[in-house]
């Protein structure tokens, strides 16, 4: 089975939305093309890039594997719409992997991100190229994946700042 994972920012500027969607769709379709068997898409389903990736992956016919950082992960969703999307994607997942952390901490997020990086053939990074704002942020996961020789596709546009 071929595997594609995601790491990315929660806040994607409006001017990047169409670009990010198109790039994710292109990467997933490329992973599906020319390979027998299903494509596994790994995501923690955080708001923003993770949920966008999950939506596109499922639409393209990939199987979704949800990587949950902690036992209380759902409590971190303060926006009811984002929580509803998380719950809906989780129900559609083929597989669920739960990190062994009771609480949502930076360490739990890092563990989930490194799990995704370790278990995919390619990592998509919706990333502005800047350092992570906390342990387990997108910059940390990109650095981790690259240090292990994992192919990383960065999706962003030069000159666009995230909120």
Notes on the protein architecture:
The chain is an alpha/beta fold and 163 residues long. It has a single domain (10-155), classed as Rossmann fold, CATH 3.40.50.450. The protein has helices spanning 17-32, 49-59, 80-92, 106-118, 138-147, and strands spanning 2-8, 39-43, 63-68, 95-98, 122-126, 152-155. A six-stranded parallel sheet has the order 4-3-2-1-5-6, with helices on both faces. Strand 5, helix 5 (138-147) and strand 6 form a beta-alpha-beta unit. The termini are far apart.
Which bin fits the share of residues in helices? 25-40%
- Secondary structure tally: strands: 6
* Helix vs. strand class: alpha/beta
Average of per-residue pLDDT values: 95
Distance between the termini: 36 Å
Give a topology summary.
Layout: E1 2-8, H1 17-32, E2 39-43, H2 49-59, E3 63-68, H3 80-92, E4 95-98, H4 106-118, E5 122-126, H5 138-147, E6 152-155
Parallel strand pairs: 1-2, 1-5, 2-3, 3-4, 5-6
Helix pairs in contact: 1-2, 2-3, 4-5
Considering the chains and any ligands shown, give keywords for the structure.
Rossmann fold; six-stranded parallel sheet; globular; single chain; 19% strand; 39% helix; 5 helices; 163 residues; alpha/beta
């Amino acid at each position: 089975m071929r595997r594609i994972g995601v790491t990315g920012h929660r806040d994607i500027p409006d001017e990047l939305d169409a670009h990010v969607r198109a790039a994710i769709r292109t990467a997933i379709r490329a992973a599906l093309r020319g390979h027998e068997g299903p494509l596994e898409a790994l995501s923690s389903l955080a708001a923003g890039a993770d949920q966008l990736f999950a939506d596109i992956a499922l639409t393209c016919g990939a199987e979704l594997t949800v990587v949950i950082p902690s036992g209380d992960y759902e409590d971190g969703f303060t926006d009811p719409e984002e929580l509803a999307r998380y719950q809906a994607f989780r129900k559609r997942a083929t597989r669920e992997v739960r990190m062994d952390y009771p609480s949502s901490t930076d360490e739990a997020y890092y563990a989930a991100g490194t799990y995704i990086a370790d278990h995919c053939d390619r990592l998509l990074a919706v990333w502005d190229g800047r350092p992570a704002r906390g342990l387990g942020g997108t910059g940390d996961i990109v650095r981790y994946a690259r240090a292990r020789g994992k192919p990383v596709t960065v999706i962003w546009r030069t000159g666009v700042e995230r909120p």
